[in-house]
Amino acid sequence: MKDKHGANIFEISREYGFDETQIADFSSNINPIGPSVSSIEYLKDNLNLVTTYPDPEYVSLKESISSYSGANPENIVLGAGTTELFKQYISLISPKKALVFSPCYSEYENELKSIGAEIFYEDLLEKNEYAVSLDSMIEKIKSQNIEMLIFANPNNPTGTILNREEISAILKTGIHLLVDETYVEFTDKSKFSAVELTNHYPNLFVARGVSKFFATPGIRLGYGITSDKKLLTTLKENSMLWNVNIFADILGQKMFQDSKYQSEVFSFMNSQRDYFFKELSEIKNIKCFPSYGNFILCKILNHSTAAELREHLMKKAIVIRDCSNFKNLNEKNFRFCILSEADNKKLISELKKYFK
């Protein structure tokens, strides 16, 4: 069975009678501004390339990713989304013992289970506002002989984050480290991105995609960064020829170059995150936790459950994420992402009515 991630708006539209465009999907964590306009226009101008095979080396795409991320082009591997890259990396390292955060994105555990790894958990607890206890985690890595650590930075669904110095301290243990940077672009990359560390630690693999920040989940483009030459060779040898389609290649080249768009997204998301924290602080029956992502984890403090709140909001064409199925969370926890200013105001208004 495959886990479902986010809402199926087509199913919701059928069940509740909404048009898909009416639904405010706060469960998907996708940038509401949409894709870079200049990159979409460039794609439109080059639709005729559908008759052309992509460059099997993806030289231009890798150069664009390199300029954007600061990674050496030779250290970049491409995939059909980050999940494909997780799967390949985990399979090739094939750790006997692995550590993940709890709670975390479920696909890490699924891939580790598929290779028969023994999974250990670093518990992120409400009493610590879901922050990572770095010293105790490093001690666990050493005492349990953990071979691989996987986490998202910021972590989904908690918004927890580690800075570059903390990540460096983990790498010094010699562990294989997979850092999922799906959400790092919503925060200060100069402090929190681990890409620069790949130049110094071959035991580090950083994975990024374009689904969330660049709002293009449909093109299925992901990229990994590592300086482990043996691993890079194996990944490239095992990847399918033309594993990224021509439209993802074209779109990717341009959107990584659109710095104006990137600044616009970053500024909007940060201002709206501040808006949510301010407004939520006025609702006495909701507690929200610090977040560095484009989403916020909350806890209901009265008799209601997240499932009940989700069902209530669904009737208003608003979808939030019930987090009761995450480890270390419960039926009181829900998560929502940042959407348009109008949708954000609508959510706050409905939450204030519900909890009045």
Explain this structure.
The protein is an alpha/beta fold. It folds into 2 domains: 118 residues, Aspartate Aminotransferase, domain 1, CATH 3.90.1150; 221 residues, Type I PLP-dependent aspartate aminotransferase-like (Major domain) (Aspartate Aminotransferase, domain 2, 3-Layer(aba) Sandwich). 38% of the residues lie in helices and 16% in strands. It is built from 13 helices and 13 strands. α3 runs parallel beside α10 and α4 runs parallel beside α5. The protein starts with 8 loop residues before the first helix and ends with a helix.
**How large is the count of helical segments?**
13
Class by alpha and beta content: alpha/beta
Number of strands: 13
Described by strand count, sense and barrel closure, the largest sheet is:
7 strands, mixed
Query: What distance lies between the first and last C-alpha atoms, to the nearest angstrom?
Result: 40 Å
CATH architectural label of the largest domain: 3-Layer(aba) Sandwich
Order of helices and strands: HEHHEHEHEHEHEHEEHHHEEHEEEH
- CATH homologous superfamily of the largest domain, by name? Type I PLP-dependent aspartate aminotransferase-like (Major domain)
How large a portion of the residues is in β-strands, by DSSP E?
A: 15-25%
Identify low-pLDDT runs. Answer: 1-5
CATH top level class name of the largest domain:
Alpha Beta
| Count of the domains | 2
So what's the overall shape? globular
Q: At the third CATH level, what is the topology name of the largest domain?
A: Aspartate Aminotransferase, domain 2
The radius of gyration is: 20 Å
